[in-house]
Amino acid sequence: MDAAGDQDIKLQRSSPDRIAELRRSLPRFLWKSKATGEGAPPVTRVRTLVLKSKTERLINLLEPFQEWPQLLDPHLVDILQPLVSAFIEYLFNHKSKYRQNVDKPVSSKIIPLPRAICKIIYTLCKVRGQKVITQFLDNDPHNLEPMLDALEQWSQAEDPGVGSTCTNQAMVWEERFVMLLWLSHLMLAPFELVSLASQSPGINPDATTSLRIGFHKKTPPIAKRLVNVADHYLGFASKEREAAAVLLSRLALRKDMRKIELQMTLVNCALLILDRSHSKAAPLPTYALIGILSFLAKIIISAENEVRKPLLAPIYKSVQHALADDSPFHKELNSSAMARKLIIKIRRALIVAGIEIDAKNPRSPSCVGEDALEEVIDEMLTALADKDTSVRIAASKALSVIAVPLKFEMVAQIVEPILEKLREDMVWTWSEQHEVQSIGWPDLAAHGINSPPELPAHWEQSLAQVNPMSWHGLVLTLSQLLFRGSMPKYLIDTVLKTLDLALHFEQRTSLGVSIGTNVRDAACFGLWSLARRYKTADLKADSDLTFQVLANELVVAATLDSAGNIRRGASAALQELIGRHPGEIRHGIRVVQVVDYHAVALRSHAMLEVARSASKIDKVYWHALLNGLLDWRGVGSPDPQSRRHAAEAIGSLAAIDALTSVHDTIKIVRDRLRKTSSYKIEVRHGLILALGEVALAGAKFYFEMDVHGSVHTNDQILEFGSHLAVQTAELWTAYCTDRPEVKDGRADDAIQFFYLDSMLRSGLMCEAVCSLISALAWITSTFSLVPVKELIARVEDMHVCVRALERSLEKTDPDVLQASAQTAESLFRLLDQHTQTQLVSKWAQRLHPTTPKTPDGSKAGATMALVAVFQQVGDMELSAPSGPAIRAMFQDFSIDPGNVLMPPLRVLILHILLEQLNYPVTSIELRCTTLKSLTSGVLESECAYLFTWIPRELILLVITADLSNALEVCLADYTIDQRGDVGSLVRIEAIKAVATVLRKNLVSLRNRKTLAAKICGLAVEKLDKVRWRAWNCLQPNWGVFGLGLRPQVIIADIAQTSTTDYFKQLISLCDQGWIQVPLLEGFITSAGAGSESVLQASRTAFVAYTNDRSLVALSMYCTTIVDFVHDNHSNDRLLLPAMDFLGFLFDAGVLPRLANEMFGWKRLFNVIQATQLNSINIHKIEAAVKIYVGLAGMASLPKIKSVALKKLYQMLIHRYPKIRNVVADALFILTQDEELLGVNWSKPQKDLEIVILRIKEKLQAEDRQHLLD
Fold it and tell me: What digits encode the pLDDT tens for the residues 978-1031?
């Protein structure tokens, strides 16, 4: 399947902006400036706390560079230098402030600066690799003790409690990882540890996981602290374990530490733990054991020969014991994939070091063991079939590294068992008397076959029974050997053929998931290594497989493979093959330019464009790509969309040299289809699609030659047309009748419609069959110069095709329905008028509101079919032979034939579509399908005016009457279900239809204004995708709507529809009276219920706009909003945003501006009170409280203020505790009433009886005073 997009190309384009933003943001993020006085420069200090959100934003700028890490290389200094400087300054000046402000509520949003810096540095390590990043860390020895002090102090905090909201007390793993990595980097600096005076006691490692080290009396205190810190983190489950192992190994291998034999002490402690299989002590956790193994691996790999020589034998003995022992301790160790990988790494390092040391002292006994090499190689070969990929990769690399110092004779003893293992489960199959026979590799000798070249030509090799994990490890080992140049030359031919076979490796699970990708990836690596490491002469002398054959296979893999890494790996291998071996590949430079590493990133582009371009270069690539497209990578792909692309690619290949290719390709595809089992639905789906594409390619080629002229002679053109006619007739006969030709007792192609009912149960087969029928029908009806109609005269009845179309229209898959609609359009031309009328009647009856239990899928298919034939039913009149049937349909749908001014069936189809849009129970999916069909098949068609000779005024009247009403209904569809606002799908499709209607000017001026007002409201609603689509409709029709010449602010991106300028431009349209109500209706959904950015932008725009308007205009807008509240008391979609927005208008000081104006304050209070009364919606009640608070703050309106205050006091006895708390807080702010303090308003009402009684008395006193006044 296609990836989400060509990510690396997008990254390359956006990387300058990302890096510029990062470099611009880092200084402000790390440092703060403080003015010191006039004329003096500001003082810059490092921050101590930063926002977590800003840290995440910087990390998000770096994350995409994982696709292309090298883009960061020129900028690493500029990025890391300020991070390192700020961290060091914090260590020296602000280390004690690490946990400041952790008890404040805001602490969940802020983090200490070191944590933010470590998160960013870790992200850089993840993107670019820690070996590269550590080069930029400061290695001044003076930083060692402050860094260690900080790590010890910060890590000694207890974790937050269960109920704590503080997240800053304990260090996060990124901090520990980076600081340990930094400490390990400081260990490389040439200085004596004894020169650092250390008084801190340091960390005490956990007794259950520590190495229990006994230090030498001369061990410096700082070294003890470093060992304890590393030992403490060596058993952690996260990344700091790796950094701790690096720190411990580098510390042990320092020159001053070797003098006191710290490395021997640490290794002995580690081995003691590994050997404690029968100890009564509690077993170590798995990750602690992994940490110890990591340390041993690091120290063996990093140490010099003189240091590691005495360590080799004891470490090898301990590791062998750990592998062979059956104790629970060692079983748990061997059950971990990470532990097995580290053991392989340790043994590899031991063997390589032993070989190197023994080579210098050939007369001395082996420092590892006499049989160590054979034992390790044998166990590595077994590990190549391990269930975990990381173990297989480690084993393959280990074997290749061990093979480097060995002689070719000994390497051959490694390679030959690998080749033998690869043949173990191979099977060869062949067909004998219509039955499939098979034979395995061990049984070949019984048939007198001793080597693969002696195999019969008709035998096919099958890898269906081989172990894919074993094959991955084995092939990867061969590739690693080639990469290191260790492969004996006489084995290159066999290895090369194995890699070629592995490049085609594919197995699938019962669910269709591919499990052969890693094998093909290893094969690409091997071919890349082969082309890179070996000379042309050596390969030509030692291999029968030519360079051109390899190039063909790599071109196929690079363009057709389903995995993106395989396509790119094959492209890289092809580039190496052509570049390192010039002159061996046909048109090599052109092939490299076409099959580019970046061009094959997207599978659809690689399959359709790159494959076509490559096949044009030379015929050898054409044949290779055609065979590949007809194999599992193309029409046999498990992904339906890939099979469609493969079929399209086969058609494009056939069109390259259509004069000869079309006929040959059709024969090849039909032959492949004939041999394909009827159970392989996916393959047959792809092959039948390919037949239709090839036939269309040939027809289009003939059309271009016939109409536009050609370089070919007339005889060639006529011969091609004759062949095309014959093959089209054969395809009609073979696939589109129930009387297939029989050859040798078997039906041709074995897929005729004789088995139609069983075959069309699958939606995929429905799609394929319909596509083929559509192609053949289009060719038959289009090319009158080709005697196709005469040749298919024997196809007397088209009922088989019609039946296939009917079955397909019952499916629910969108791709099947789309193919069915195209078939209906093409096939309709070949049918007689009586059959056409019957089909239209049958489809119309499915959509009749009274038709019982018609599935939505069937209705969608009928809708698309009716629209597909819309243009072809224009010549059917009521006076024709089919007139009675048409009149019957009109009667069923209550249409008066006497008032029909247009072609009757077009009127019927349009009426059915509009009725479906207006019908209240129509599902969302069916309504969307109807709108799409209406737009593309009717409104966008050439016959959108339906009858060219009818006066324009009558057309507008006819269309406007129903179409505008239906579109208005769809524009106001706000259906909500468990999926959310699914009505937005209908609104978007309706906006597209309105855009077409306006562009083609299909509605009157009055209806145009109505639709424009609706579109303006949708352009300011809360959903981004709806706003963006509405704006795309509104912007080009700005002048048509009478809104001016053009909009002042041009919006070119969906993100711009969430800006203040956007909302301000549209809210200004309220001056147009006919737009005001729909516009404000949409606007309050954004200003009252939109996302944070939309909420802020829309509210800011409204305040800015109303500040420049008169109070009369403001009063009119606010009255309209109050009307929304009044008119939608049961519609929370508009009611809640409108109430929230009114509350905001009080807070923003907009409504108080109307205090001295004729505004319905009393009506506002009454409307809100009626809405809130007896409501159980907490949101609604809180919104009402905000409005009451705003009214109670109107000092210039004492009556309104008094009524609102009274209402708030009444709500102190509300049944919901949350409302009582909100009201009490608001009243205290308004009145400063001390009685409101010290009361727990969350208590039950019965516990508040005294307070409530006092409040009631106070309210009664205020009522009496009000009456006296």
Answer: 888 899 999 999 999 998 888 877 777 777 888 888 999 999 999 999 999 999
Lookup result for tokens 């700028």: 61
The length of the chain in residues reads 1269
Q: How many beta carbons lie within 10 A of that of residue 977, not counting itself?
A: 9
The predicted-structure confidence for 171-224, as pLDDT tens digits, reads as follows: 889 999 999 999 999 999 888 888 876 666 666 665 545 566 777 788 888 888
Question: Looking at 93-97, 958-962, 967-971, which range is the least confident one?
Answer: 958-962
Taking the C-alpha atoms of residue 593 and residue 571, their distance in angstroms, rounded to an integer, is 10
pLDDT at 750: 41
User: Confidence class of residue 895 from pLDDT cuts 50, 70 and 90?
Assistant: low
Buried b (16+ CB within 10 A) or exposed e, 1228-1243: eebeeeeebeeeebee
In tens, the pLDDT along 433-460 reads 556 666 766 666 566 565 555 566 667 7
Q: Quick check: helix, strand or coil at residue 363?
A: coil
| Location of structure tokens 């894919």 | 468
For residue 1184, give the nearest of 1165, 1205, 1199, 1202 by alpha carbon.
1165
At 308, which amino acid appears?
A: R
- The C-alpha angle 658, 660, 664, rounded to 5 degrees, equals 105
Residues 6 or more apart whose CB falls under 8 angstroms from that of 480 comprise 396, 397, 399, 400, 529
Evaluate if residue 1124 carries a pLDDT over 60.
Answer: yes
CA angle, corner 787, sides to 781 and 790, nearest 5? 90
Please name every residue paired with 432 in a beta bridge, in sequence order, or none if there are none.
435
The CB-based long-range contact list for 368-376 (8 Å cut-off, 24+ gap) reads 368/312, 368/313, 368/316, 369/313, 369/316, 369/317, 372/316, 373/402, 375/320, 376/347, 376/348, 376/350, 376/351, 376/402
Which two tokens mark 128? 């670019």
Using N-to-C axis directions, what is the helix angle for 547-560 and 517-533, rounded to 10°? 140
**CA nearest neighbour of 658 among 600, 720, 604:** 720
Q: Which helix (H) or strand (E) holds 437?
A: strand 435-440
The Cα–Cα gap between 585 and 620 comes to 11
Helix (H) or strand (E) holding 559: helix 547-560
Residue 218 per-residue DSSP state: T
Name, in order, each residue with C-beta under 8 angstroms of 679's C-beta and a sequence gap of 6 or more.
Answer: none
Q: What is the 3-state secondary structure (H, E, C) of 476-497?
A: HHHHHHHHCCCCCHHHHHHHHH
**3-class secondary structure, 1039:** coil
Report whether 1103 contacts 1084 (CB < 8 A).
no
Range list of H helices, 187-285: 221-233, 240-252, 255-258, 262-274
With beta carbons less than 8 A apart as the criterion, state whether 844 and 893 touch. Answer: yes
DSSP secondary structure code for residue 710 in this structure: -
CA distance 767 to 196: 78
Which residues, in sequence order, are bridge partners of residue 1243?
none
Residue-wise burial string across 147-170, b where 16 or more C-beta atoms lie within 10 A, e elsewhere: bbbbbbbbbeeeeeeeeeebbbbe
Nearest to 866 by CA among 899, 910, 932, 826: 910
559: confidence class by pLDDT, cuts 50, 70, 90: very high
Q: What does the block give as tokens for 55?
A: 């840290």
Q: Check whether 943 has a pLDDT greater than 70.
A: no
Residues 575-603 pLDDT 10s: 999 999 998 999 999 999 999 988 898 89
Kind and range of the H or E element at 43? strand 43-46
**How does DSSP assign 812-870, residue by residue?**
--HHHHHHHHHHHHHHHTTS-HHHHHHHHHHHHHHT-TT-TT--HHHHHHHHHHHHHTG
